[in-house]
Write a structure and sequence with these properties.
It contains 25 helices and 2 strands. It is mainly alpha-helical and about 525 residues long. Helix 11 crosses helix 12. The termini are close together.
Amino acid sequence: MSGKAVAYAIGKMMQLMGVILCVPFGIAVYDLPAMSFSALFSSPEAVGFLLTIVVCFILGTAVSYSCRAQRDKQGIREGYAIVALGWIILALIGSIPFFLYFISRSGDYHISSLLLHFTDAFFEIMSGFTTTGSTILPDVEIIPASLLFWRSLTHWLGGMGIITLALAIFPAMGVSGYQMFRGEIPGPTADRLRPRLAQTAAILWGVYALLSAAETVLLLIGGMPLFDSLCHTFGTMATGGFSTKNGSIGSYGSSYFEWVVIVFMYLAGINFLIHFNVLRGKWRRSVVNREFLFYTGLIVVVALFLSFTLYGGDLKPTEEAYKHHKHNKGTIEDFDAYMFQEANKFDNMHDCVRHSMFQTLAITTTTGYGTADFDLWPDIARLLLLTLMFFGGCAGSTGGGMKQIRVMILIKTGWRELRKLTLPRLVAPLKIGGQALEEQKITNIASFFILFMMLFVVGSILMTFFVPDLMTAISSTAACINNIGPGLNGVGSIEHYGWIPIPGKWILIACMLLGRLEIFTVLIVFRPSFWK
């Protein structure tokens, strides 16, 4: 293991992050009451961004310069270390503006308070970079615009991958680029579009930026302000879910905005290689892609089932959900008015289809946006949405979860084993789209599934020590390890994670990172033999 080779790559990424942070810093300066040094240093968010930029440039330059001689001494181990440690370090640095803002707002400098503020800031930024969308903020609308933009921008950077962006900009980061690429791009495979990895990274980011620009323009046409359009585009294309409104997309009360977001959530959940082929005119490849067909069919079937379930149905929260909703609404009268408002969303079939399609895509693609409070839906609908959290988007998309292709292979493997019980001599290679899969790849996917479910169970058990009910413990773990955002009950669609004790937040932070980097990349770094 070459520690200097790892440090060099992380130093280059810090330099890149320093450049990116100039954008939210510019927004913070623009929002100052007066353009002066005294006004600048009276704004905690402006100071936070300026300090972070200085740290990124000084520390990043110093580290990359001092370690430049070892930059080519990278292999498989160095590649995985760069991805795992890079994400943690960048999230730590990126949390500085929120940390300073939380301190200035509270005015409490006790150790316990500082630990809480640091945990909250790191939780929020890790949730952003991993495109989870879980928030500790009970009221996002009082947060300064620069911080709101930064948390949304972390979505966009983390969606395609900050290291993938660095590979496109710094192609000479090292020879372990493919290991970094594999460690960050979600899915069981990470195919190249071009022989040179930097070209592949640039193409993926180009398609990503093009789709993002298209959604921003469509939201602007509908009348959404530019700032909100950009932030919601970042959350949609990265399948993140951070919003500038407390009520998410539902705050606008616009079916046009909802359908635009529906379309782009669907596109964000598709393998970006398919988008690239479609843009080149090779759209037939997407039509015959089995994962794409499975993904599309699942969304349509579930959305229609939810539509008929909700049409004319009676919304009634569970006892635990009722307690949390009542606490938020203050009085019985407020809660009754809220229930009446939610019930009116399903008065006609069009509204049922729209809300069902939106929520199905928001959960399946792990975006996490909301237009309705699905915590009030019938238990069958809540259970179905909880199950969809594990499916996720397609491999090579920005979606989280286990990925559709893995679910397909697991189902096919189970069916093949059933056939072998009655036909022991059967030789039946597993095929996807007419192509036989290597047994090693099937074993890898089965191992991933076992580890994923083990970590989910362990995380849920640990969370029972810090939350009041089992469903909150289970759904919070599922929402974070699958990078969804909202769960059920105490972390439902109108709730937040700020009330969870500090140890519980750190468990969920670990779940976010494990889910985004797909377990192996993180766990392998914690093996003692890895560092020998």
